Amino acid sequence: MRLVLLGPPGAGKGTQAALLSEKLGIPHISTGDLFRANIGEGTPLGIEAKQYIDAGKLVPTDVTARMVESRLAESDTEQGFLLDGFPRTVEQADILEELLAKQGHKLDGVLNFNVSEDVVVERMLARGRADDNENTIRTRLGVYREETAPLIDHYGDRIINIDAEGSVEEINDRAMTALGRS
After folding, report:
1. Is there a binding annotation on residue 110?
2. What residues does ATP bind to (predicted)?
3. How many domains does the chain have?
């Protein structure tokens, strides 16, 4: 099963990805983890990405896409994967479609974790991180809406909406049911 996970910061994508990965027997591929691994290992892509990060800039789509392409070529993804953090834009979604087509695959679905802004703010404030205050959280949510709303339209009938409010177990049950794996 080849899935993309969408949802705002604080929607619980990482938590759900870990559970789904275990239950479905496919790897969770987070772009954040990919960046950390490539930078930590000093790969050419990691060195390139680090230059942007150190300058306070976003890592360009082509660098991120090459990291994702390299990761999707690994043998543990043959039965599928959960992609978290890529694509973030319609341009990246098109790149992903091309990468998968080269491998003779396509996405099976896009899990969209829906959660209200107030719940996100509450969850993120509860984490107690220094950079999590209500203003910065709401700004990040605004950026997410601007970048991701077009993705939801782009994926159309491949979107699988999941109510991401409630307990971790309830949300996971909803996701597994939506995937026909309950």
Report:
1. no
2. 10-15, 127, 166
3. 1
